[in-house]
Structure formats: C-alpha cells, structure tokens
Amino acid sequence: MNPELDGYFKRAKQWRAELALLREVLADCELTEERKWGKPCYAHDGKNIAIIQPMKGHLCLMFFQGSAMKDPAGLLAFPGPNSRVGKRFEFTSLEHLEGLQAVVKDYVVEAIALAKSGKKLASKPELELVEELRERLDADPDLKAAFEALTPGRQRAYHLHVSGAKQAATRHKRIDKHAPRILAGKGLRD
C-alpha cells in the first residue's frame, strides 16, 4: 500500500475501522493504491479498478466498470439515478464489511479480469433531449451549434438540469438563463 495515504486513513473521523479493514482487504488483491479525486483509488496495470468513497451514512467501494460486472447477489448499486457505468458496495458497519470480505475480494478479481480483457462497456444511448430544449435548439441554429460543440457530459448536464423542472415555464426559464453559457462553450458548472 502507498505510505503517502497512511495519513488519509489515520485522519478519518468516520468509518476509521471500516476504512482500515477495507484497505487491508484490497492490499491482498494485487492492486496499486493512489490518491485520485482526493480519495484512495486502486488500479491494476495502470487501469482504475475501484475507489473508496466515505459518505455520511455508509462507506462505499465503487467499481469503475461495475455495470459490466456479474452481480448474482445484487450487492452492487448505482451511485445515483443518472449513473450508468460505476457501481458500488455500500457498507453500513464494520460487521457488515467483515461478513463480505471474501465477496469483496471475488468482485475485485472479477473487476481486474474485466479491465485486463479490454472489454468495452455498452455504448451510451443517444441523448433524448427534453422537448423544450430540443425545440429551442431547432429554432436557434447558433445555440444548436454551440450545444453540439459541448462535450457529451456537458450536454447531458444541461439536459438533466432543464428536464428536472416540473413545469414547462420553468424549463423555458432555465434554457433562457443558460443560453449565454452554452454559446460561450461553457458547461453548467464551469
């Protein structure tokens, strides 16, 4: 394990025992430990396999290609409703993690094999824009060109933000508000 991350595990105020045990389990799996996105991340031959994510209500071990993994027991969960690729274990106590150590190792072995295989994940479905956004883009060629020049993630973020409004009037206001940002080539959170 990476000694540079020792401080991360020692400073943990919540989930300290669970973090230590999870780190120990992962140490037996031929993974390299690095800090990425401010969290302990585990890789094999330079390919990200999993990352530890301490949350308020649970401790997570998220597999980067979790959606392609077999999960016969149904133990992996998507982090959120708009997630498509990563899936994670959610541990709620030390006892919970202790009971799943062997299963975690099995899943890590599978994730490593998946990364080695080079198997590509299923392609993302075409983004179906909410009606108001689609109509506005069709009506404004400059806005449409700017929107299409954005990265797929930025396009999706705008779509989710606009479609999240319950009323059509609010969706129109959100489009109006963010049109200058889109024309400037910026994402919703840039």
Structural commentary:
With 190 residues, this protein is an alpha+beta fold. It has two domains: 3-117, Alpha-Beta Complex (Aspartate Aminotransferase, domain 1); 131-183, no CATH class. It has helices at 6-11, 16-27, 94-99, 101-117, 131-139, 141-149, 152-163, 168-183; strands at 32-36, 39-44, 47-54, 59-63, 87-91. The model has no long low-confidence stretch (mean pLDDT 90).
Summarize the structure.
The protein is 46% helix and 15% strand. It has 8 helices and 5 strands, in the order ααβββββαααααα.
Indicate the CATH class of the largest domain.
Answer: Alpha Beta
Task: Summarize the main sheet.
Answer: 5 strands, antiparallel
Gap between N and C termini, in Å?
35 Å
Question: How large is the count of helical segments?
Answer: 8
Model regions low in confidence, pLDDT < 50 over at least 5 residues: none
What global shape is seen? elongated
Following the backbone from N to C, one meets helices and strands in this order, namely HHEEEEEHHHHHH
What's the helical proportion of residues?
Answer: 40-55%
Radius of gyration: 20 Å
In total, how many domains does the architecture comprise? Answer: 2
Q: Provide the residue-averaged pLDDT.
A: 90
> Structural class, judged by helices and strands?
alpha+beta
Percentage of β-strand residues: 15-25%
Task: Output the strand order for the largest sheet.
Answer: 1-2-3-4-5
As for the CATH topology of the largest domain, it is Aspartate Aminotransferase, domain 1
CATH architecture of the largest domain: Alpha-Beta Complex
The oligomeric state is single chain
Number of strands: 5
